[in-house]
Fold:
Amino acid sequence: MPSSRATLLTALLGLSCATPGARSPAPLLEADRAFAEEARLHGVPAAFTRFAAPDAWVLKASGPERGREAVARTFAGREKMDLRWEPKGGELSADGEQGYTWGTWTLTMKGEAPGVPLTGRYLTTWRRTAEGYRWTADLGESDPPPPAAAPPPCPLCGTWLLVDRVDRLASGAGIPGRTTLRHASQRQVRGIGARFRRETQRGQRRLHARLELAG
Structure:
């Protein structure tokens, strides 16, 4: 169901049933839910093979392939896929022979550490057979990744940078650190203040020079 072949969704809709007087899609939704339950209980390969129509097709790199054997080959080795989906709507043709369903899916991998699941939307076309409604084509599209979260505000970041800088200057003046800064002599404290001002001024000049070059 997850794939990047969303460009074919319009074609699939054309293959289904945009006909006046279409029936309620309830039988297709019921078939799709049974399909999803089969995947939950018995795995993706078994469900996709069992619910495939005899002429179901899958799209591979070499081109489309038809038949349940092609479906079985395509989904072989995907036993670890934990694919869940829920139909949201669909259409059934007036004669009840074919239609489509669409919905949302979630994919995780069995036996792996929990992570952010993949999600997306799908469209499945159906045809009535002697076994009931069976899917003839199934395509999906992944949702775009969520935007990266902005870092939380850090109101103390500037304070800590200032404290660390004063601490470094104190160490350069021969004072072990801010824990003993209160015991420094007035001369040492004045020296630290002067060095702090000089470093700040140099930083401002460098910033102005960069801004002038950028302009």
Summary: The first helix runs from residue 9 to 15. Confidence is low (pLDDT under 50) at residues 4-11, 156-163, 177-184.
